[in-house]
Specification:
Elements: E1 6-9, H1 17-26, E2 30-34, H2 41-50, E3 54-57, H3 62-73, E4 78-82, H4 97-125, E5 128-133, H5 137-140, H6 146-166, E6 171-178, E7 181-182, H7 189-192, H8 195-202, E8 211-212, H9 213-225, E9 235-238
Parallel strand pairs: 1-2, 1-4, 2-3, 4-5, 5-6, 6-9, 7-8
Helix pairs in contact: 1-9, 4-6
Length: about 240
């Protein structure tokens, strides 16, 4: 894994962002890390001290992020759309269309926009990688979570089509689809501290345990900067056999 690889990741302080940044920097990547939390100087400074190889940026505008990466490092090898949004539980008959539209914007439009901004740079370089962090939920379906599963399923489908479209440009496109991974975005610590609730959750997982964010981070690094130059168009579940 070359130290010169430049990776841009969105929402770096949430979902699998912290574990992904940790593993990417450990594996030698230069990381442009986006988070709205970096608008606060104290948070931005603390992050930069923990990760000297990372450039923290608060802006969420895809064009601004791509420009920041290329201006600082001269290239952009991979973009990771690490998109999280509430998994709102609601029957279709009771669902709020505003919630549905908000979820689609966060989990489907956002990764599309990031890819759209990065592709011209990667085409000019003759290579690049795009990784979407999605969910395994739409691979099986979840009762009363149609809005969430539809948005994530759209992102998974986006990967399959982009991979075909961009393969002639040597741009690899893959998705990492977690479920039942212990991170505070979807499994708050208070929930997991409840032994009865945790046991009920773990009964759904063939491996009999929740996954860790570090396990997802390892796969993120593999797809982003690892030796996988002949792998594209995959939606890879990280779900302990559930998917």
């Amino acid at each position: 894994m070359a130290a010169s690889k430049v990776v841009l990741i969105t929402n770096a302080t949430s979902y699998v962002g912290p574990a992904a940044v940790q593993r990417l920097t450990q594996d030698g990547a230069q990381v442009v890390a986006q988070s709205s939390q970096f608008a606060e100087e104290e948070t931005r400074t603390a992050f930069a001290q923990r990760h000297p190889q990372a450039l923290p940026i608060a802006s969420s505008d895809p064009a601004t992020l791509v420009q920041a990466a290329t201006s600082r490092f001269g290239r952009l090898d991979c973009v990771i759309s690490n998109d999280d949004a509430p998994a709102i539980k609601a029957a279709v008959a009771d669902a709020d269309l505003g919630d549905f539209r908000t979820g689609l914007e966060a989990m489907l439009v956002a990764p599309f926009a990031l890819a759209k901004a990065a592709i011209p740079v990667m085409q000019a370089q003759g290579a690049g990688r795009i990784v979407l962090i999605t969910s395994a939920a739409p691979l099986r379906g979840l009762t009363n979570y149609c809005m969430y599963a539809a948005a994530r399923g759209g992102a998974n489908a986006l990967v399959l089509s982009m991979a075909r479209e961009l393969a002639p440009h040597n741009i690899l496109v893959n998705a990492i689809a977690p479920n039942y991974v212990a991170n505070p975005t979807y499994f708050p610590e208070t929930l997991l501290a409840d032994e009865t609730a945790r046991a009920k959750i773990e009964r759904n997982i063939p491996l009999g345990r929740l996954g860790t964010s570090a396990e997802v981070g390892a796969l993120v690094s593999f797809y982003a900067i690892g030796d996988c130059g002949f792998v594209t168009g995959h939606v890879t579940p990280v779900a302990g056999g559930w998917a």
